[in-house]
Write a structure and sequence with these properties.
Helix content is 24%, strand content 38%. With 417 residues, it is α+β, with helices and mostly antiparallel strands.
């Protein structure tokens, strides 16, 4: 028996020595960074890559931490439901004293869980929080962002070094924290999904120490109130009738003329002496005419017709496209009233553009603010007016007017079956 105990004791000693040696081998000193304007600019680029504005407007986030702690965070209300084992607590993030739980101890536990587990979900979005110091550290000749939390959370004083890709999106970070005795342990931040609210969140992390994995469960972020507002807009512009409309005719500034077979998605596009019977889903099927005579396929003219159609149809039917794939919706307050912010992540000619729809009391769009990078329109306001009830029963606009007085006329707008 004594021999067995000695062997067990020896194994424990060897294991402890091995762990200590491992810690010494892996331990890194906290690097010294350069604070200032450049560090803030690097942090801003990271915010842009992960869509910080969309995060600010996200309404609900759901996730779990290692399958043990489960969360529903009503972000705009400052409330988070935390559940684990047989416990359930609603934490009021604006005033902890208003939190709801069976005991103060359970509430305190829920707050600690949330501070830790939410960090593993949204840490990159917190680099401009109050009490955060930012600096630049060179890693392999590239700029990395070092952040130190001097206040807030459960363990103020922790530092994290964010390693970014060429688009300034986080790839992984290194940690110097109170809870982990080894400095410089890294964790991946590259298992990202783009959520329904348009923000990027991680599904899991892998630590450099023993390959330990942290699973974040079924990660979701969405905006139900924004979706309700968008549905109200669709109702106001009679979207159900639009879905059933077969043909739409219009022109753009008297320069380009369209007849769109919406069901077959074939568009007759005319401008100057050119005409293209455009098949947007398969451009090779398009037919080209010059001076009303069919000519051989002309790739440049077909692609030009497609660009015209993408731009000019947007000015006619954009509000009808609020729920197309790749569109993220959120609520913005404009002059004390709810407006709908939409961002296009793909499709059209300039993916990445966003628009803020201003509505009347009946949810009919009256104008929008454009944030179009390609033409440097950042917040430019243009009206949507002279809505006409078409023969098919949907609403389409006849005119748009810039604040400068510039008019975009849509011609004789028709919708019919």
């Amino acid at each position: 028996m004594k021999k067995i105990l000695k062997i067990i004791g020896l194994l424990i000693t060897v294991t402890m020595v091995a762990i200590i040696l491992y810690c010494f081998a892996k331990n890194e000193s906290l690097p010294s960074g350069t604070p200032g304007k450049e560090a803030d600019e690097l942090a801003e680029k990271m915010m842009l890559s992960i869509n910080k504005k969309a995060f600010d407007n996200t309404e609900i986030l759901k996730w779990s931490f290692r399958g043990k702690h489960h969360y529903e965070w009503k972000k705009q209300e400052g409330l988070v439901n935390v559940s684990w084992e047989n416990a359930s607590v609603t934490v009021n993030l604006n005033d902890y004293s208003k939190s709801i739980g069976e005991s103060p101890k359970l509430i305190e536990t829920a707050i600690k869980f949330f501070n830790n587990d939410s960090f593993w979900l949204i840490a990159p979005y917190k680099v401009f929080d109050q009490g955060v110091e930012r600096s630049i550290v060179k890693i392999d000749g590239k700029d990395a962002l070092l952040v130190k939390y001097t206040s807030g959370g459960t363990t103020p004083g922790d530092s994290y070094l964010w390693i970014l890709d060429e688009n300034y999106t986080p790839v992984y970070f290194k940690m110097w924290t109170q809870i982990i005795p080894i400095g410089g342990i890294s964790a991946t931040w590259n298992d990202l999904i783009t959520t329904d609210s348009g923000i990027k969140l991680p599904k899991s992390h892998t630590l450099s120490i023993f390959g330990y994995k942290i699973n974040m469960g079924e990660v979701k972020a969405y905006n139900p109130n924004a979706d309700i507002l968008a549905h109200n807009i669709l109702k106001a512009i009679k979207h159900n009738a639009y879905k059933n409309t077969r043909y739409i005719d219009w022109s753009f500034k008297g320069k380009r003329f369209y007849k769109w077979d919406k069901k077959k998605h074939i568009v007759d596009v005319k401008w100057n002496d050119a005409r293209v019977l455009l098949h947007p889903n398969d451009l090779t099927k398009s037919t080209v005419y010059l001076n009303d005579k069919e000519v051989s396929y002309n790739d440049n003219l077909v692609k030009r017709a497609l660009r015209f159609f993408n731009n000019d149809s947007f000015w006619l039917v954009a509000p009808h496209k609020l729920f197309e794939p790749g569109i993220y919706r959120s609520i913005r307050m404009v002059d004390g009233k709810e407006a709908l912010h939409v961002k296009y992540s793909r499709g059209g000619t300039t993916p990445g553009d966003s628009y803020v729809w201003i509505l009347d009391e009946n949810y009919l769009p009256t104008n929008y603010q454009m944030y179009v990078q390609k033409i440097k329109k950042l917040g430019t306001t243009v009206t949507w007016e002279d809505w006409t009830l078409t023969e098919s029963g949907t609403l389409l606009p006849k005119n748009h007017i810039y604040l400068s007085g510039k008019i975009i006329n849509m011609g004789e707008v028709k919708g019919y079956n």
